[in-house]
Amino acid sequence: MQRRPDIFFAGFNSLAGKEEEVWVLSMGHFLGNFDADWLGIRHTRQMMTIRFAEFSMYDESSDKILQTGLFLDVIGLMQSVGMNPLPPSTGSYFPCYPGPRTHDGLVTQTHCPDPSEGKQTQQLIDTMVADLSSINHLNSCPPEILQKTWHEDMLWYGPAGIGSSYSIPRYQQQHQLPFRAQLSDKKFEGHEVRIAEGKYAAFFGWPMNLSNTPTGGFLGLPGGTANCPMQVVDVYRRDGDKLAENWIFIDLPYYLKHQGLDVIERTTGIMNPSAIEETLDSTSMKKNETELITTKLAVKRKISSVSEDDEVAPAAKKAPVDYPKIIECVSDRSIESDNS
Questions:
Q1: Are 29 and 52 in contact, with CB atoms under 8 Å apart?
Q2: Alpha carbon distance 119, 91 (integer Å)
Q3: Burial of 226 (0-12, 13-18, 19+ CB in 10 A)
Q4: pLDDT (tens digit per residue) in 251-264
Q5: In this structure, how many other beta carbons lie within 10 angstroms of the beta carbon of residue 321?
Q6: Are 247 and 128 in contact (CB under 8 A)?
Q7: Cα–Cα distance between 57 and 29 in angstroms, integer?
């Protein structure tokens, strides 16, 4: 398998009380041959990609990684193999999203930007987050709010199930306005990490960025009463004084499971039932093995409890019990059960 990053940079955590933390962001695609089922998703023996975003907390004194947060677009992989668990998306999704338009996303020692560039990017991100959080009580968003920090031809790359959009008007039509209108009780829960370096910035929340209650329509699904946590990753590229590109990850399976829907289990159970059968067979085999061991132990205890010096009345004497034969018989029955 290949790791193919499109964006790589590092920075100090800008959040209060965490300013000494150094985090590294790597985002792109894993690429390889899909040769075995994974999470019940049917393998294809073909080349596949899956989007990833990885945040790693780095400790300079020990030169080690202390924490890692890894986000994968699992629904995107499911769509790639023809196992789409969700209704059609409002935006356009494709398995391999492009990296930065400027092809300068890998920020290394040989390409180290001026620290003031990162500070400018961070300030722009902070302004955007504050602006959007201030209108969480609304079911809409005036375009002027976004125009303060976004380019008019913003490229927004959303997760599978939502898709991508080009320009502020299309982004609002295909994602933002449905998101705001179809989710109530929206609350910003805070970020775990917020970093910037050069023209790039990223943040994520744990165990959630947001919480909300679906009222019906979001992702093409019905609403409910459960207030659900939403884990979101945002990666941005700044162009001049505004943001030009945004890559998004949302753990939709996690979000939907809090509504009582396990989309991975449901879809794989329908479209790849052999994976469920293999799991059940494995569980049954382990159960039989456990029962066999329990029976053997019980037999051994019975043998040890019978003393050679015990006297039995002649009328009560019977043929000796062949315990090794019982154990062999039990073993044969277990094998037959496994093969049935």
A1: yes
A2: 32
A3: exposed
A4: 999 999 999 999 99
A5: 12
A6: no
A7: 20
